[in-house]
Amino acid sequence: MAIDSQVVARVAHLARLQVDEGEREALSERLNEILGMVDQLQQADVGQVEPLAHPLELSQPLRDDRVDEPDVRDKVLPIAPASEDGCFLVPRVIE
Amino acid sequence: MSSSLFNGWEVVIGLEVHVQLATRSKIFSGASTATGDEPNRHASLIDLGMPGTLPVVNKEAIRNAVRFGLAINAEIGRRSVFERKNYFYPDLPKGYQTTQLAEPIVGPGEVVIQLDDGSEKTVRIHHAHLEEDAGKSLHEDFHGMTGIDLNRAGTPLIEIVSEPDMGNAEEAVAFARKLHAIVTSIGVCDGDMSQGNMRFDVNISVRRPGEPLGTRTETKNLNSFRFMEKAIKLEVERQIDVLEDGGKIVQETRLYNGDTNTARSMRTKEDANDYRYFPCPDLLPVLVSEEDIEALRAEMPELPDARKARFMDAYQLSDYDAALLASSMATARYFETAADHGGDAKLAANWVMGDLAAKLNAEDLDIAHCPVSAEHLGQLIQRIKDGTISSKIAKQVFEACWAGDGSPDQIIESQGLKQMSDSGELEKIIDQIIADSPAQVEDYRNADDAKRKKKIGYFVGQVMKATQGKANPQQVNELLQEKL
Protein backbone atom coordinates (compact mmCIF):
# COMPACT_ATOMS: atom_id res chain seq x y z
CA MET A 1 0.00 0.00 0.00
CA ALA A 2 1.28 3.40 -0.94
CA ILE A 3 1.20 6.11 1.63
CA ASP A 4 0.37 9.63 0.57
CA SER A 5 0.11 12.76 2.64
CA GLN A 6 -3.59 12.10 3.24
CA VAL A 7 -2.85 8.76 4.87
CA VAL A 8 -0.14 10.43 6.94
CA ALA A 9 -2.65 13.02 8.13
CA ARG A 10 -5.18 10.33 9.03
CA VAL A 11 -2.74 8.12 10.92
CA ALA A 12 -1.33 11.16 12.70
CA HIS A 13 -4.83 12.10 13.77
CA LEU A 14 -5.55 8.60 15.07
CA ALA A 15 -2.33 8.71 17.10
CA ARG A 16 -3.01 12.30 18.16
CA LEU A 17 0.32 13.43 16.70
CA GLN A 18 0.71 16.92 15.36
CA VAL A 19 2.16 16.69 11.87
CA ASP A 20 2.25 19.95 9.98
CA GLU A 21 1.22 19.97 6.36
CA GLY A 22 4.74 20.80 5.24
CA GLU A 23 6.10 17.63 6.86
CA ARG A 24 3.57 15.25 5.38
CA GLU A 25 5.17 14.84 1.98
CA ALA A 26 8.60 14.01 3.40
CA LEU A 27 7.08 11.68 5.99
CA SER A 28 5.06 9.77 3.44
CA GLU A 29 8.22 9.21 1.38
CA ARG A 30 10.08 7.79 4.35
CA LEU A 31 7.13 5.63 5.37
CA ASN A 32 6.91 4.28 1.83
CA GLU A 33 10.56 3.29 2.04
CA ILE A 34 9.86 1.38 5.25
CA LEU A 35 6.87 -0.31 3.66
CA GLY A 36 9.08 -1.24 0.74
CA MET A 37 11.21 -3.16 3.19
CA VAL A 38 8.10 -4.81 4.61
CA ASP A 39 7.10 -5.81 1.07
CA GLN A 40 10.44 -7.55 0.77
CA LEU A 41 9.74 -9.43 4.01
CA GLN A 42 6.30 -10.39 2.72
CA GLN A 43 7.95 -12.39 -0.05
CA ALA A 44 9.49 -14.84 2.41
CA ASP A 45 7.62 -18.15 2.56
CA VAL A 46 6.29 -18.44 6.13
CA GLY A 47 3.61 -21.04 5.44
CA GLN A 48 5.20 -23.46 7.88
CA VAL A 49 5.92 -20.90 10.60
CA GLU A 50 3.67 -20.22 13.59
CA PRO A 51 2.68 -16.58 14.06
CA LEU A 52 4.85 -14.91 16.66
CA ALA A 53 3.28 -12.70 19.32
CA HIS A 54 6.45 -12.16 21.30
CA PRO A 55 10.11 -12.72 20.53
CA LEU A 56 10.75 -14.53 23.81
CA GLU A 57 9.96 -18.21 24.10
CA LEU A 58 8.35 -17.62 27.47
CA SER A 59 4.84 -17.57 28.83
CA GLN A 60 3.18 -15.00 31.01
CA PRO A 61 3.76 -15.44 34.75
CA LEU A 62 0.49 -15.07 36.64
CA ARG A 63 -0.10 -13.48 40.00
CA ASP A 64 -2.47 -14.51 42.77
CA ASP A 65 -5.73 -12.60 43.08
CA ARG A 66 -4.69 -10.39 45.97
CA VAL A 67 -5.24 -6.68 46.65
CA ASP A 68 -1.77 -5.29 47.30
CA GLU A 69 -1.55 -1.92 45.56
CA PRO A 70 -1.56 1.16 47.78
CA ASP A 71 -4.07 3.99 47.38
CA VAL A 72 -2.10 6.70 45.53
CA ARG A 73 -4.94 9.12 44.91
CA ASP A 74 -3.64 11.87 47.13
CA LYS A 75 -0.28 11.75 45.35
CA VAL A 76 -1.54 11.66 41.76
CA LEU A 77 -4.48 14.06 41.87
CA PRO A 78 -2.29 17.11 42.64
CA ILE A 79 -0.08 16.47 39.60
CA ALA A 80 -3.06 16.36 37.24
CA PRO A 81 -3.82 19.61 35.36
CA ALA A 82 -7.19 19.78 37.12
CA SER A 83 -9.09 17.76 39.69
CA GLU A 84 -12.15 18.09 41.88
CA ASP A 85 -13.97 15.91 44.42
CA GLY A 86 -11.46 13.11 43.89
CA CYS A 87 -11.93 13.09 40.12
CA PHE A 88 -9.52 14.05 37.38
CA LEU A 89 -11.04 16.84 35.30
CA VAL A 90 -10.86 16.90 31.53
CA PRO A 91 -12.47 19.12 28.92
CA ARG A 92 -16.08 18.10 28.54
CA VAL A 93 -16.50 14.92 26.54
CA ILE A 94 -19.59 15.25 24.39
CA GLU A 95 -21.30 12.17 23.06
CA MET B 1 -31.12 -18.62 10.48
CA SER B 2 -34.22 -17.05 11.96
CA SER B 3 -37.66 -18.45 12.28
CA SER B 4 -40.09 -15.57 12.14
CA LEU B 5 -40.65 -12.82 9.62
CA PHE B 6 -41.68 -9.23 10.27
CA ASN B 7 -43.65 -7.87 7.33
CA GLY B 8 -41.63 -10.13 5.09
CA TRP B 9 -38.33 -9.07 6.67
CA GLU B 10 -35.97 -11.46 8.36
CA VAL B 11 -34.28 -10.14 11.49
CA VAL B 12 -30.73 -11.14 12.33
CA ILE B 13 -29.42 -10.51 15.84
CA GLY B 14 -26.06 -11.15 17.43
CA LEU B 15 -24.95 -10.19 20.92
CA GLU B 16 -21.77 -8.96 22.50
CA VAL B 17 -21.91 -9.41 26.23
CA HIS B 18 -19.52 -7.87 28.72
CA VAL B 19 -19.28 -9.86 31.92
CA GLN B 20 -17.41 -8.38 34.86
CA LEU B 21 -15.40 -11.12 36.52
CA ALA B 22 -15.78 -11.45 40.27
CA THR B 23 -12.11 -11.18 41.21
CA ARG B 24 -10.83 -9.28 44.22
CA SER B 25 -8.11 -7.45 42.32
CA LYS B 26 -7.86 -6.09 38.80
CA ILE B 27 -6.79 -8.01 35.75
CA PHE B 28 -3.32 -6.42 35.48
CA SER B 29 -2.78 -4.83 38.90
CA GLY B 30 -3.25 -5.51 42.59
CA ALA B 31 -5.77 -2.68 42.99
CA SER B 32 -9.13 -3.58 44.44
CA THR B 33 -12.17 -4.10 42.19
CA ALA B 34 -14.49 -2.90 44.98
CA THR B 35 -17.24 -0.50 43.95
CA GLY B 36 -19.02 2.23 45.84
CA ASP B 37 -15.90 3.85 47.29
CA GLU B 38 -14.64 7.39 46.68
CA PRO B 39 -13.43 8.11 43.14
CA ASN B 40 -9.89 7.01 42.25
CA ARG B 41 -9.21 5.22 45.55
CA HIS B 42 -8.58 2.03 43.59
CA ALA B 43 -6.65 3.50 40.67
CA SER B 44 -3.11 2.15 40.99
CA LEU B 45 -0.12 3.41 39.03
CA ILE B 46 -0.63 0.55 36.58
CA ASP B 47 -4.31 1.38 36.10
CA LEU B 48 -3.35 5.02 35.59
CA GLY B 49 -0.98 4.05 32.79
CA MET B 50 2.04 5.61 34.47
CA PRO B 51 5.29 5.30 32.53
CA GLY B 52 7.52 2.49 33.73
CA THR B 53 4.78 0.28 35.08
CA LEU B 54 4.19 -3.22 33.80
CA PRO B 55 1.03 -5.32 33.92
CA VAL B 56 0.97 -8.79 35.53
CA VAL B 57 -2.00 -11.01 34.73
CA ASN B 58 -4.36 -12.07 37.52
CA LYS B 59 -4.53 -15.87 37.68
CA GLU B 60 -8.15 -15.86 38.83
CA ALA B 61 -9.25 -13.85 35.78
CA ILE B 62 -7.74 -16.53 33.56
CA ARG B 63 -9.37 -19.29 35.59
CA ASN B 64 -12.76 -17.58 35.43
CA ALA B 65 -12.54 -17.24 31.67
CA VAL B 66 -11.64 -20.93 31.37
CA ARG B 67 -14.56 -21.84 33.64
CA PHE B 68 -16.91 -19.98 31.33
CA GLY B 69 -15.40 -21.72 28.31
CA LEU B 70 -15.97 -25.11 29.91
CA ALA B 71 -19.57 -24.18 30.77
CA ILE B 72 -20.39 -23.53 27.11
CA ASN B 73 -18.45 -26.50 25.79
CA ALA B 74 -15.96 -24.27 24.06
CA GLU B 75 -12.47 -24.93 22.89
CA ILE B 76 -10.14 -23.42 25.48
CA GLY B 77 -7.30 -21.36 24.08
CA ARG B 78 -4.27 -23.23 25.43
CA ARG B 79 -2.30 -20.22 24.35
CA SER B 80 -3.94 -16.81 24.25
CA VAL B 81 -2.46 -13.44 23.40
CA PHE B 82 -3.23 -9.97 24.70
CA GLU B 83 -3.34 -7.15 22.18
CA ARG B 84 -3.61 -3.40 22.33
CA LYS B 85 -6.71 -1.76 20.92
CA ASN B 86 -5.68 1.84 20.40
CA TYR B 87 -8.04 4.75 20.84
CA PHE B 88 -8.14 7.93 22.82
CA TYR B 89 -10.75 8.54 25.45
CA PRO B 90 -10.29 10.20 28.84
CA ASP B 91 -11.47 7.17 30.82
CA LEU B 92 -8.81 5.02 29.15
CA PRO B 93 -5.56 6.38 30.60
CA LYS B 94 -3.11 4.26 28.62
CA GLY B 95 -4.46 5.29 25.22
CA TYR B 96 -5.23 1.64 24.48
CA GLN B 97 -7.37 -1.10 25.93
CA THR B 98 -5.57 -4.35 26.63
CA THR B 99 -7.78 -7.02 25.10
CA GLN B 100 -7.57 -10.13 22.93
CA LEU B 101 -8.30 -10.51 19.26
CA ALA B 102 -6.70 -13.18 17.11
CA GLU B 103 -6.00 -15.68 19.86
CA PRO B 104 -8.71 -15.41 22.54
CA ILE B 105 -8.88 -17.56 25.65
CA VAL B 106 -12.26 -19.06 24.75
CA GLY B 107 -12.91 -20.37 21.26
CA PRO B 108 -16.16 -21.44 19.59
CA GLY B 109 -18.83 -22.89 21.88
CA GLU B 110 -22.58 -23.03 22.17
CA VAL B 111 -25.47 -22.11 24.43
CA VAL B 112 -28.85 -23.87 24.26
CA ILE B 113 -31.81 -21.61 24.93
CA GLN B 114 -35.37 -22.59 25.84
CA LEU B 115 -38.14 -20.68 24.09
CA ASP B 116 -41.62 -19.92 25.37
CA ASP B 117 -43.24 -22.57 23.18
CA GLY B 118 -41.07 -25.19 24.88
CA SER B 119 -38.71 -25.65 21.95
CA GLU B 120 -34.94 -25.34 22.17
CA LYS B 121 -32.47 -23.51 20.00
CA THR B 122 -28.70 -23.52 19.90
CA VAL B 123 -26.92 -20.18 19.76
CA ARG B 124 -23.31 -20.50 18.67
CA ILE B 125 -20.64 -18.55 20.47
CA HIS B 126 -17.99 -17.18 18.14
CA HIS B 127 -15.48 -16.70 20.94
CA ALA B 128 -15.02 -14.99 24.31
CA HIS B 129 -11.99 -12.91 25.17
CA LEU B 130 -10.45 -11.34 28.24
CA GLU B 131 -10.04 -7.60 28.50
CA GLU B 132 -9.91 -4.73 30.92
CA ASP B 133 -12.78 -2.38 31.67
CA ALA B 134 -12.41 1.39 31.27
CA GLY B 135 -13.00 4.02 33.96
CA LYS B 136 -16.08 6.15 34.26
CA SER B 137 -16.72 9.60 32.81
CA LEU B 138 -18.96 11.74 34.99
CA HIS B 139 -20.66 14.50 33.05
CA GLU B 140 -22.65 16.15 35.82
CA ASP B 141 -21.55 18.41 38.63
CA PHE B 142 -18.26 19.56 37.14
CA HIS B 143 -19.35 22.95 35.77
CA GLY B 144 -18.76 22.23 32.12
CA MET B 145 -15.85 19.82 32.62
CA THR B 146 -15.96 16.02 32.73
CA GLY B 147 -14.89 14.17 35.86
CA ILE B 148 -12.88 10.96 35.50
CA ASP B 149 -13.08 8.15 38.05
CA LEU B 150 -10.66 5.32 37.30
CA ASN B 151 -11.73 2.91 40.03
CA ARG B 152 -13.25 0.64 37.40
CA ALA B 153 -10.28 0.92 35.02
CA GLY B 154 -8.61 -2.46 34.77
CA THR B 155 -11.49 -4.50 36.17
CA PRO B 156 -11.43 -7.87 34.38
CA LEU B 157 -14.11 -8.57 31.80
CA ILE B 158 -14.87 -11.33 29.42
CA GLU B 159 -16.55 -10.22 26.24
CA ILE B 160 -18.72 -12.97 24.84
CA VAL B 161 -19.44 -12.67 21.13
CA SER B 162 -22.31 -14.69 19.72
CA GLU B 163 -22.91 -15.68 16.13
CA PRO B 164 -25.89 -13.86 14.57
CA ASP B 165 -28.15 -16.79 15.41
CA MET B 166 -31.12 -15.00 16.94
CA GLY B 167 -34.16 -14.02 14.89
CA ASN B 168 -36.19 -11.84 17.25
CA ALA B 169 -36.16 -10.03 20.57
CA GLU B 170 -37.54 -13.02 22.48
CA GLU B 171 -34.68 -15.26 21.36
CA ALA B 172 -32.12 -12.59 22.18
CA VAL B 173 -33.54 -12.12 25.67
CA ALA B 174 -33.70 -15.89 26.23
CA PHE B 175 -30.04 -16.08 25.23
CA ALA B 176 -29.09 -13.18 27.51
CA ARG B 177 -30.95 -14.77 30.41
CA LYS B 178 -29.26 -18.09 29.80
CA LEU B 179 -25.83 -16.47 29.80
CA HIS B 180 -26.75 -14.70 33.03
CA ALA B 181 -27.79 -18.03 34.56
CA ILE B 182 -24.54 -19.67 33.44
CA VAL B 183 -22.12 -17.01 34.68
CA THR B 184 -23.89 -16.66 38.03
CA SER B 185 -24.13 -20.44 38.46
CA ILE B 186 -20.41 -20.94 37.95
CA GLY B 187 -19.70 -17.92 40.13
CA VAL B 188 -17.54 -15.96 37.69
CA CYS B 189 -19.85 -12.91 37.88
CA ASP B 190 -22.36 -11.69 40.44
CA GLY B 191 -24.76 -10.84 37.60
CA ASP B 192 -25.86 -7.54 39.11
CA MET B 193 -27.06 -5.77 35.99
CA SER B 194 -28.10 -2.61 37.83
CA GLN B 195 -24.41 -2.09 38.61
CA GLY B 196 -23.43 -2.74 35.01
CA ASN B 197 -21.71 -6.00 35.95
CA MET B 198 -23.27 -7.58 32.90
CA ARG B 199 -23.84 -5.37 29.84
CA PHE B 200 -25.33 -6.24 26.51
CA ASP B 201 -24.58 -4.78 23.09
CA VAL B 202 -26.99 -5.91 20.40
CA ASN B 203 -26.12 -6.09 16.71
CA ILE B 204 -29.22 -5.95 14.55
CA SER B 205 -29.82 -6.10 10.83
CA VAL B 206 -32.77 -7.00 8.63
CA ARG B 207 -32.98 -8.50 5.15
CA ARG B 208 -35.39 -10.12 2.76
CA PRO B 209 -35.15 -13.92 3.15
CA GLY B 210 -32.40 -15.35 0.99
CA GLU B 211 -30.61 -12.06 0.51
CA PRO B 212 -27.14 -11.32 1.92
CA LEU B 213 -26.93 -9.85 5.44
CA GLY B 214 -28.07 -6.26 5.72
CA THR B 215 -26.04 -3.43 7.21
CA ARG B 216 -26.11 -3.76 10.98
CA THR B 217 -26.32 -1.30 13.80
CA GLU B 218 -25.12 -1.81 17.33
CA THR B 219 -27.25 -0.74 20.31
CA LYS B 220 -24.96 -0.48 23.29
CA ASN B 221 -24.95 -0.96 27.02
CA LEU B 222 -28.37 -2.40 27.65
CA ASN B 223 -28.44 -3.28 31.32
CA SER B 224 -31.80 -4.93 31.80
CA PHE B 225 -33.60 -7.70 29.97
CA ARG B 226 -36.70 -5.57 29.67
CA PHE B 227 -34.83 -2.69 28.04
CA MET B 228 -33.06 -5.11 25.77
CA GLU B 229 -36.32 -6.49 24.47
CA LYS B 230 -37.78 -3.02 23.92
CA ALA B 231 -34.61 -1.68 22.32
CA ILE B 232 -34.50 -4.55 19.83
CA LYS B 233 -38.14 -4.14 18.84
CA LEU B 234 -37.61 -0.42 18.40
CA GLU B 235 -34.53 -0.84 16.23
CA VAL B 236 -36.09 -3.55 14.08
CA GLU B 237 -39.07 -1.30 13.41
CA ARG B 238 -36.80 1.64 12.61
CA GLN B 239 -34.69 -0.34 10.15
CA ILE B 240 -37.72 -1.76 8.37
CA ASP B 241 -39.27 1.72 8.16
CA VAL B 242 -36.08 3.20 6.71
CA LEU B 243 -35.70 0.43 4.14
CA GLU B 244 -39.36 0.45 3.12
CA ASP B 245 -39.13 4.19 2.58
CA GLY B 246 -36.28 3.55 0.18
CA GLY B 247 -33.58 4.63 2.62
CA LYS B 248 -30.34 3.00 3.63
CA ILE B 249 -29.14 1.70 6.99
CA VAL B 250 -25.95 3.36 8.17
CA GLN B 251 -23.55 1.26 10.20
CA GLU B 252 -23.57 3.05 13.51
CA THR B 253 -23.64 2.72 17.26
CA ARG B 254 -26.93 3.63 18.88
CA LEU B 255 -27.75 4.48 22.45
CA TYR B 256 -31.06 3.35 23.93
CA ASN B 257 -32.90 5.38 26.55
CA GLY B 258 -35.14 3.15 28.64
CA ASP B 259 -37.02 6.00 30.26
CA THR B 260 -38.36 7.33 26.97
CA ASN B 261 -38.10 4.11 24.91
CA THR B 262 -36.16 5.99 22.25
CA ALA B 263 -32.71 5.56 20.73
CA ARG B 264 -30.30 7.91 19.03
CA SER B 265 -27.18 7.57 16.95
CA MET B 266 -24.05 7.83 19.08
CA ARG B 267 -21.32 7.62 16.49
CA THR B 268 -20.76 6.02 13.17
CA LYS B 269 -18.67 2.98 13.80
CA GLU B 270 -14.98 3.39 13.26
CA ASP B 271 -13.39 0.89 10.96
CA ALA B 272 -11.88 -2.03 12.89
CA ASN B 273 -8.51 -1.11 11.40
CA ASP B 274 -8.67 2.28 13.03
CA TYR B 275 -7.95 0.61 16.35
CA ARG B 276 -4.55 -0.49 15.02
CA TYR B 277 -4.49 -3.67 17.10
CA PHE B 278 -1.11 -5.23 17.74
CA PRO B 279 0.17 -7.80 20.25
CA CYS B 280 0.93 -6.13 23.58
CA PRO B 281 4.71 -6.15 24.01
CA ASP B 282 4.31 -5.89 27.80
CA LEU B 283 2.54 -9.23 28.09
CA LEU B 284 3.69 -12.68 27.11
CA PRO B 285 1.31 -15.30 25.73
CA VAL B 286 -0.82 -16.89 28.47
CA LEU B 287 -0.60 -20.65 28.57
CA VAL B 288 -3.28 -22.85 30.08
CA SER B 289 -2.23 -26.45 30.68
CA GLU B 290 -4.33 -29.59 30.34
CA GLU B 291 -3.99 -30.11 34.10
CA ASP B 292 -5.34 -26.62 34.81
CA ILE B 293 -8.30 -27.25 32.53
CA GLU B 294 -9.05 -30.67 33.99
CA ALA B 295 -8.81 -29.32 37.55
CA LEU B 296 -11.29 -26.56 36.73
CA ARG B 297 -13.58 -29.01 34.97
CA ALA B 298 -13.55 -31.28 38.01
CA GLU B 299 -14.63 -28.52 40.37
CA MET B 300 -17.25 -27.10 38.02
CA PRO B 301 -20.44 -26.13 39.92
CA GLU B 302 -23.87 -27.25 38.76
CA LEU B 303 -24.97 -25.66 35.48
CA PRO B 304 -28.53 -24.36 34.92
CA ASP B 305 -29.61 -27.30 32.74
CA ALA B 306 -28.37 -29.83 35.28
CA ARG B 307 -30.07 -27.88 38.05
CA LYS B 308 -33.35 -27.97 36.17
CA ALA B 309 -33.10 -31.73 35.78
CA ARG B 310 -32.36 -32.08 39.49
CA PHE B 311 -35.34 -29.88 40.44
CA MET B 312 -37.64 -32.07 38.35
CA ASP B 313 -36.23 -35.18 39.93
CA ALA B 314 -35.74 -34.16 43.57
CA TYR B 315 -38.76 -31.89 43.98
CA GLN B 316 -41.13 -33.48 41.46
CA LEU B 317 -41.53 -30.17 39.66
CA SER B 318 -42.91 -29.85 36.15
CA ASP B 319 -40.57 -29.10 33.25
CA TYR B 320 -41.89 -25.54 33.10
CA ASP B 321 -41.58 -24.86 36.84
CA ALA B 322 -38.11 -26.39 37.05
CA ALA B 323 -36.86 -24.40 34.05
CA LEU B 324 -38.13 -21.15 35.51
CA LEU B 325 -36.72 -21.75 38.98
CA ALA B 326 -33.36 -22.93 37.66
CA SER B 327 -33.08 -20.00 35.28
CA SER B 328 -31.07 -17.82 37.62
CA MET B 329 -28.73 -18.65 40.44
CA ALA B 330 -30.45 -16.22 42.79
CA THR B 331 -33.92 -17.63 42.06
CA ALA B 332 -32.70 -21.21 42.39
CA ARG B 333 -30.99 -20.52 45.69
CA TYR B 334 -34.06 -18.69 47.01
CA PHE B 335 -36.40 -21.48 45.96
CA GLU B 336 -34.26 -24.24 47.45
CA THR B 337 -33.91 -22.44 50.78
CA ALA B 338 -37.66 -21.73 50.96
CA ALA B 339 -38.50 -25.31 49.98
CA ASP B 340 -36.12 -26.76 52.58
CA HIS B 341 -37.36 -24.49 55.35
CA GLY B 342 -41.00 -24.91 54.38
CA GLY B 343 -40.88 -28.63 53.81
CA ASP B 344 -43.01 -28.42 50.67
CA ALA B 345 -41.36 -27.88 47.29
CA LYS B 346 -44.55 -27.51 45.28
CA LEU B 347 -45.88 -24.81 47.62
CA ALA B 348 -42.49 -23.09 47.60
CA ALA B 349 -42.42 -23.20 43.79
CA ASN B 350 -45.93 -21.74 43.58
CA TRP B 351 -45.04 -18.92 45.93
CA VAL B 352 -41.74 -18.06 44.27
CA MET B 353 -43.26 -18.05 40.79
CA GLY B 354 -46.59 -16.59 41.87
CA ASP B 355 -47.06 -13.98 44.58
CA LEU B 356 -43.35 -13.35 45.06
CA ALA B 357 -42.56 -12.95 41.36
CA ALA B 358 -45.58 -10.67 40.88
CA LYS B 359 -44.57 -8.47 43.77
CA LEU B 360 -40.92 -8.31 42.65
CA ASN B 361 -42.06 -7.45 39.17
CA ALA B 362 -44.43 -4.75 40.37
CA GLU B 363 -41.69 -3.11 42.41
CA ASP B 364 -39.01 -3.77 39.78
CA LEU B 365 -36.84 -5.64 42.28
CA ASP B 366 -34.35 -8.43 41.76
CA ILE B 367 -34.93 -11.56 43.86
CA ALA B 368 -31.50 -11.03 45.41
CA HIS B 369 -32.90 -7.85 46.95
CA CYS B 370 -36.25 -9.34 47.99
CA PRO B 371 -37.42 -7.92 51.33
CA VAL B 372 -38.92 -11.28 52.33
CA SER B 373 -36.06 -13.69 52.99
CA ALA B 374 -36.20 -17.26 51.69
CA GLU B 375 -36.12 -18.46 55.30
CA HIS B 376 -39.19 -16.37 56.10
CA LEU B 377 -41.05 -17.63 53.06
CA GLY B 378 -40.17 -21.14 54.23
CA GLN B 379 -41.62 -20.36 57.65
CA LEU B 380 -44.79 -19.04 56.02
CA ILE B 381 -45.12 -22.24 54.00
CA GLN B 382 -44.68 -24.28 57.15
CA ARG B 383 -47.55 -22.41 58.80
CA ILE B 384 -49.79 -23.09 55.83
CA LYS B 385 -48.85 -26.75 55.93
CA ASP B 386 -49.40 -27.25 59.64
CA GLY B 387 -52.78 -25.50 59.47
CA THR B 388 -51.83 -22.48 61.59
CA ILE B 389 -53.02 -20.17 58.82
CA SER B 390 -55.11 -20.56 55.68
CA SER B 391 -53.56 -19.80 52.31
CA LYS B 392 -55.72 -16.70 52.14
CA ILE B 393 -54.36 -15.35 55.43
CA ALA B 394 -50.89 -16.37 54.22
CA LYS B 395 -51.10 -13.69 51.53
CA GLN B 396 -51.86 -11.13 54.22
CA VAL B 397 -48.89 -12.34 56.29
CA PHE B 398 -46.69 -12.22 53.21
CA GLU B 399 -47.64 -8.59 52.56
CA ALA B 400 -46.87 -7.69 56.17
CA CYS B 401 -43.57 -9.53 56.00
CA TRP B 402 -42.74 -7.67 52.78
CA ALA B 403 -43.54 -4.39 54.53
CA GLY B 404 -41.03 -5.26 57.24
CA ASP B 405 -43.40 -6.12 60.09
CA GLY B 406 -41.25 -9.05 61.19
CA SER B 407 -41.09 -12.80 60.62
CA PRO B 408 -44.28 -14.68 59.64
CA ASP B 409 -44.50 -16.19 63.12
CA GLN B 410 -44.21 -12.75 64.74
CA ILE B 411 -46.84 -11.34 62.39
CA ILE B 412 -49.27 -14.22 62.93
CA GLU B 413 -48.87 -13.79 66.68
CA SER B 414 -49.02 -9.99 66.89
CA GLN B 415 -51.90 -9.60 64.45
CA GLY B 416 -53.83 -12.56 65.85
CA LEU B 417 -54.07 -14.35 62.52
CA LYS B 418 -53.99 -17.90 63.82
CA GLN B 419 -56.62 -20.13 62.33
CA MET B 420 -59.41 -20.86 64.76
CA SER B 421 -58.71 -24.37 65.94
CA ASP B 422 -61.01 -24.28 68.96
CA SER B 423 -64.06 -26.09 67.57
CA GLY B 424 -66.19 -24.98 70.50
CA GLU B 425 -65.87 -21.33 69.58
CA LEU B 426 -66.35 -22.10 65.91
CA GLU B 427 -69.45 -24.14 66.65
CA LYS B 428 -70.96 -21.21 68.49
CA ILE B 429 -70.45 -18.96 65.48
CA ILE B 430 -71.89 -21.56 63.13
CA ASP B 431 -74.95 -22.08 65.32
CA GLN B 432 -75.55 -18.35 65.33
CA ILE B 433 -75.33 -18.10 61.55
CA ILE B 434 -77.69 -21.02 61.08
CA ALA B 435 -80.15 -19.40 63.48
CA ASP B 436 -79.89 -16.07 61.63
CA SER B 437 -80.50 -17.55 58.16
CA PRO B 438 -83.73 -19.60 58.27
CA ALA B 439 -84.52 -19.04 54.59
CA GLN B 440 -81.13 -20.28 53.40
CA VAL B 441 -81.30 -23.24 55.77
CA GLU B 442 -84.70 -24.19 54.37
CA ASP B 443 -83.38 -23.82 50.84
CA TYR B 444 -80.36 -26.01 51.64
CA ARG B 445 -82.38 -28.78 53.26
CA ASN B 446 -84.74 -28.97 50.27
CA ALA B 447 -81.92 -29.28 47.76
CA ASP B 448 -80.46 -32.53 46.44
CA ASP B 449 -76.89 -33.57 47.19
CA ALA B 450 -75.38 -31.99 44.12
CA LYS B 451 -77.02 -28.64 44.74
CA ARG B 452 -76.24 -28.77 48.43
CA LYS B 453 -72.56 -28.69 47.66
CA LYS B 454 -73.08 -25.34 46.03
CA LYS B 455 -75.48 -23.95 48.53
CA ILE B 456 -73.22 -24.64 51.47
CA GLY B 457 -70.91 -21.98 50.05
CA TYR B 458 -73.17 -19.27 51.41
CA PHE B 459 -72.69 -20.53 54.98
CA VAL B 460 -68.95 -21.01 54.57
CA GLY B 461 -68.73 -17.43 53.37
CA GLN B 462 -70.66 -16.15 56.36
CA VAL B 463 -68.46 -18.09 58.79
CA MET B 464 -65.30 -16.77 57.14
CA LYS B 465 -66.65 -13.25 57.35
CA ALA B 466 -67.55 -13.67 61.00
CA THR B 467 -64.09 -15.10 61.82
CA GLN B 468 -62.21 -12.67 59.55
CA GLY B 469 -60.92 -15.58 57.56
CA LYS B 470 -59.28 -17.28 60.50
CA ALA B 471 -61.40 -20.43 60.45
CA ASN B 472 -60.05 -23.54 58.81
CA PRO B 473 -62.25 -23.95 55.70
CA GLN B 474 -62.18 -27.73 55.86
CA GLN B 475 -63.26 -27.76 59.47
CA VAL B 476 -66.02 -25.23 58.72
CA ASN B 477 -67.32 -27.44 55.94
CA GLU B 478 -67.41 -30.50 58.10
CA LEU B 479 -69.16 -28.74 60.98
CA LEU B 480 -71.70 -27.13 58.67
CA GLN B 481 -72.61 -30.41 57.00
CA GLU B 482 -73.06 -31.97 60.40
CA LYS B 483 -75.29 -29.22 61.72
CA LEU B 484 -77.36 -28.58 58.64
From TrEMBL, chain A:
What's in the keyword line of the UniProt record? ATP-binding, Ligase, Nucleotide-binding, Protein biosynthesis
Task: Kindly give the Pfam families that the UniProt entry links to this protein.
Answer: GatC
| Enzyme Commission identifier(s) | 6.3.5.-
Could you tell me what reaction this enzyme catalyses?
A: L-aspartyl-tRNA(Asn) + L-glutamine + ATP + H2O = L-asparaginyl-tRNA(Asn) + L-glutamate + ADP + phosphate + 2 H(+); L-glutamyl-tRNA(Gln) + L-glutamine + ATP + H2O = L-glutaminyl-tRNA(Gln) + L-glutamate + ADP + phosphate + H(+)
Primary enzyme class: ligase
Q: What family classification does the UniProt entry report for this protein?
A: Belongs to the GatC family.
- NCBIfam families for the chain: gatC
Briefly, what is this protein's role?
Allows the formation of correctly charged Asn-tRNA(Asn) or Gln-tRNA(Gln) through the transamidation of misacylated Asp-tRNA(Asn) or Glu-tRNA(Gln) in organisms which lack either or both of asparaginyl-tRNA or glutaminyl-tRNA synthetases. The reaction takes place in the presence of glutamine and ATP through an activated phospho-Asp-tRNA(Asn) or phospho-Glu-tRNA(Gln).
Oligomeric state and interaction partners are given as: Heterotrimer of A, B and C subunits.
Q: What is this protein called?
A: Aspartyl/glutamyl-tRNA(Asn/Gln) amidotransferase subunit C
TrEMBL record, chain B:
> tRNA-binding as a keyword?
no
Instruction: Cite the entry's keywords alphabetically.
Output: ATP-binding, Ligase, Nucleotide-binding, Protein biosynthesis
Q: What is its EC number?
A: 6.3.5.-
Please give the Gene3D superfamilies that the UniProt record associates with this protein: 1.10.10.410, GatB domain, N-terminal subdomain
**Which reactions is this enzyme annotated as catalysing?**
L-glutamyl-tRNA(Gln) + L-glutamine + ATP + H2O = L-glutaminyl-tRNA(Gln) + L-glutamate + ADP + phosphate + H(+); L-aspartyl-tRNA(Asn) + L-glutamine + ATP + H2O = L-asparaginyl-tRNA(Asn) + L-glutamate + ADP + phosphate + 2 H(+)
Q: Which Pfam families match?
A: GatB_N, GatB_Yqey
Domain Asn/Gln amidotransferase: residue ranges:
333-484
The entry describes its oligomerization and partners as: Heterotrimer of A, B and C subunits.
Say what the protein does: Allows the formation of correctly charged Asn-tRNA(Asn) or Gln-tRNA(Gln) through the transamidation of misacylated Asp-tRNA(Asn) or Glu-tRNA(Gln) in organisms which lack either or both of asparaginyl-tRNA or glutaminyl-tRNA synthetases. The reaction takes place in the presence of glutamine and ATP through an activated phospho-Asp-tRNA(Asn) or phospho-Glu-tRNA(Gln).
Q: What family does this chain come from, according to its entry?
A: Belongs to the GatB/GatE family. GatB subfamily.
Q: HAMAP family in the record, alphabetically? A: GatB
UniProt-recorded name of the protein? Aspartyl/glutamyl-tRNA(Asn/Gln) amidotransferase subunit B
- Name of the encoding gene: gatB
